[in-house]
Amino acid sequence: MINHGTAIISPITGSPGTFNVNGRESVLSEDDGDTTTITFHEIVRYDPTTLQGKGIIVAVFDRNATGTLAPFNGMIVAGKHKEDPSTKQAIITL
Fold it and tell me: Exposure pattern of 62-80 as b/e (b: 16+ CB <10 Å)?
């Protein structure tokens, strides 16, 4: 899958290194070109010494997929966010 999207990231008052993230992301299946969109909300906390981020996420899939992504139509999912500062990548598992 290939993902592209936007998010609004806001610090959570009184909890240093913790952020509230809200956004929408387009998802493209490389197998058949099917697309859908995910609306997501997450809370991520960063370790101040290592800058490693960990968090939780909830998301809902739009109901517009017609190919390989169709089984996800309307599905509400939960998952985790893991970010490694050495690789500069975030891995989100739903």
Answer: beebeeebeebeeeeeeee
The tens digit of pLDDT for each residue in 17-52 reads 999 999 999 989 888 989 999 999 999 999 989 989
pTM for the complete prediction? 0.84
Cα-trace Rg, the chain: 15
Q: How far apart are CA 33 and CA 2, in angstroms?
A: 10
Residue type (1 letter), 53: G
Distance CA 39, CA 49 (A): 31
- Look up residue 48 and give its two tokens: 């101040």
